[in-house]
Amino acid sequence: MATIKDVAKRAGVSPSTVSRALSGKVPVDQETRERVMEAVRALNYKPNILAKGLKEGRTNTIGLIVPNISNPVFPAVARGVEDVAREHGFTVILCNTDEDIEAEKDYVEKLQKRWVDGFIFATARKESHHILQLKEKGFPVVLVVRHMGQAVDAVVIDNYKSSFEAVKYLIDTGHRKICIVNGDTSLTLYKERFEGYKHALQAAGLPITPELVLDAAGRGDTGYETVRAMLEKGMLPDAVFATSDPRAIRVIRAIKDCGLSVPDDVSVVGFDDLDISAFLDPPLTTVCQPLYEMGARAARRLIDIINGEKYGQPKVELVEAKLVIRKSVKVREH
Amino acid sequence: MATIKDVAKRAGVSPSTVSRALSGKVPVDQETRERVMEAVRALNYKPNILAKGLKEGRTNTIGLIVPNISNPVFPAVARGVEDVAREHGFTVILCNTDEDIEAEKDYVEKLQKRWVDGFIFATARKESHHILQLKEKGFPVVLVVRHMGQAVDAVVIDNYKSSFEAVKYLIDTGHRKICIVNGDTSLTLYKERFEGYKHALQAAGLPITPELVLDAAGRGDTGYETVRAMLEKGMLPDAVFATSDPRAIRVIRAIKDCGLSVPDDVSVVGFDDLDISAFLDPPLTTVCQPLYEMGARAARRLIDIINGEKYGQPKVELVEAKLVIRKSVKVREH
DNA sequence: CTGAAAGCGCTTACAG
DNA sequence: CTGAAAGCGCTTACAG
Asked: Are the C-beta atoms of B187 and B143 separated by less than 8 Å?
């Protein structure tokens, strides 16, 4: 491949001049510039970005680390990150960890060796020491979707409040036996969604029934089996709050497979509002997170930090989620 | 950040020795090695990968370009690519183009400047000249899911055959008015799926009815509206072959919204076999592509090419897809 | 086994 | 406006 020297030779100038002509930031004689451009075209010259990055100490690239790319939540966030990054001349490297913290550490290990100028993590957990370390080293880091208290900049929704409101909606529409099918509560986000559920019930004077608190965490998502087992034991809630849409899809299938109807027998509320959620049967009532917006904001914040502005006190930005009402909840009279 | 010089100074050796101790490929005195490692730990030294890549002329990284990360087909392929890459010490950079050829060219432009050692494209179209150019330059390139004739190495399924068999299954189960809801036929893959449909009907002596050939290409997927419009015009097929699962989900919704039942009134067959397809209502009969396997094979092929083996005649590998029978097709008597 | 030197391909302060 | 030189942080042939 052609190097800057080849171009210089062909254009009859020095490499420095080629570099300057290409940068566009420094005055170069018009005629010289044209000769350089001509040579660049003729040789199909592409500057070696490794050399450039080595010299300049930055690569205009950000690493986006997501836990599971098959969960449509993360592609939506990624879109927001990419669009903003691109506007600012940054490229994003998307890394999928499959919830495997070792895979994640491998990525971080490799990328922090000057590949990327900063990271956005959608994978934060309590045990994510590597994220804290990065931050302590002064490496630009922003979290999205999942956060770690106030220690690191983050863009998240108010999971507690959204969950509270979703459950309150079920109560207001006449439901009394509300089951929650939740994710991994070692993630703050699911813990907060559970708290929202609990407090909404308490606020309405309803009891927390342990048999109605279901755990569908883990790989392969166990929402189907868990709900089916509950139903077959004769425990019949009048509503289920599934804390993600993929879980809601499995919950609905389980209810139907037990010969019951959604929403006539059991109402269901989801969380996410995926692309396909409006097309399910019944169209799903669910909490819509502004995922694209969250990605976009996280990217903006990170780029500010990379550009050396305000890396002072970490800020946790809260964005609004809202309940989208479709047809999976029935109003019940008592 | 610490550099190799800092480590050398602290360990009382030359930078060359540090480099050699770290590489592990060259004999280094045991005691010297330990002093180096000690210094590496103490300074938390990470070699600058840009400098390394510049010197060595490779980065052990591959670029994976996908058209739409929100379509679950591509995450599945990406998994296969990542797992194999990782086994071989490669990192993968995942780039989402959103079907925007300009975005794609931007990525390729940036990554080919020595960021990556090779590319896997899941975005190939007839107009993808940039892919051909890359290949002509000698840049390692492999295609997956979508291919470009015999010009470039590729791993794909036999779309014609899979489609033929899906439609034949509908015919064998007693369907006579079979509608196809297809994607963008400027993609070879959808053209081939259409050919399979056509020939299966012809082989059974059934006519091709233009009103039953529906186009649901384009952004936001128009499967819902198109099918609904057909049904409202009074055109009632006894089966629909949707050439992707996301399309099948919209088709089913449209049929139900017209007061009809799946599969009692209309059978539906999809294509993809997504994670959630088994949980839909009804559980979807669909063509299962071995997506993970395809990604894995593409990665293996690319890494072979990068390692300088056999970049001779391009090979198009065909992998087997198979129909997964669930409950969205009803056997009809005549 | 180890060090000094050269060089990967750029950019940029320093002279002119 | 332009060139020669130095240097970014590594690796590796060349000596010893």
From this structure: no
